[in-house]
Amino acid sequence: LLSKFVTPSLLGLHPPHYFQIDANLGGAAAVAEMLLQSHGGRLRVLPACPTAWWTGRVRGLVGRGGFTVDIEWREGRLEGLRVHSRFGGTCRLRLPRPARIEVRCGKRLVRRFRKAALEAAWKTAAGRDYELKITEAEIEEGSQFGRDLRYHHG
After folding, report:
1. What is the mean pLDDT of the chain?
2. Distance of alpha carbon 57 from alpha carbon 98, whole angstroms
3. In this structure, are residues 91 and 121 in contact, taking their beta carbons and an 8 Å threshold?
4. Which distant-in-sequence residues (6+ apart) come within 8 Å of 129 by Cβ?
5. Which of 79, 63, 92, 84 lies closest to 128 in space, CA to CA?
6. Given the DSSP bridges, would you call strands 89-105 and 42-45 parallel, antiparallel or unpaired?
7. Separation CA 33–CA 25 (nearest Å)
8. How far apart are CA 141 and CA 92, in angstroms?
9. Is 31 helix (H, G, I), strand (E, B) or coil?
10. Does residue 48 surpass a pLDDT of 80?
11. Is pLDDT at 143 greater than 70 in this prediction?
């Protein structure tokens, strides 16, 4: 399929080799959904990141509620997360692995989650940026988290 209906620059073609816009936009949307999903009132970070993308960074993904997210991961682990709140309101995140989280707006500590969790929520103000310090927890075999993880590392 890729050898017949995709150009060397990865543009999608429809037989007999006409440029097809919906294939190109659909491909970009699929990649964005692998990195950030925003359904059911929460932002899911790296919900389907393939192991081939072991290390990476993405900036400017927009989720429902007016939240713009920058994500950085290394060797399959979340390293950095920034959330910009366009309208204010509560930001609800679901992480790929359990973590302890500190949410800061500038130098001000907004919220600290001391226990490792897969989800976090905090109130945001319109136009503000929130930096998250993430410390991923070690997962014990058979733990409550081990059964719920959807992000696999190798």
Report:
1. 85
2. 20
3. yes
4. 82, 83, 84, 85, 105, 106
5. 84
6. parallel
7. 12
8. 27
9. helix
10. yes
11. no
- DSSP annotation of 6 reads B
The CA distance from 85 to 91, in Å, is 8
Token pair of 88, please? 């204010």
What H or E segment, with its residue span, contains residue 97? strand 89-105
How many angstroms separate the CA atoms of 56 and 44, rounded?
A: 17
Read off the pLDDT of residues 52-99 as tens digits, 9 standing for 90 and up: 998 999 999 999 999 999 999 998 889 999 999 999 999 999 999 999
**pLDDT recorded at residue 152:** 42
- Check if the beta carbon of residue 105 is closer than 8 Å to that of residue 82: no
Are 130 and 98 in contact by the 8 Å Cβ rule? The answer is no
CB 14 within 8 A of CB 4: no
pTM of the model: 0.79
Between CA 71 and CA 82 the distance in angstroms is 7
Q: How confident is the model at residue 2 (pLDDT cuts 50, 70, 90)?
A: low
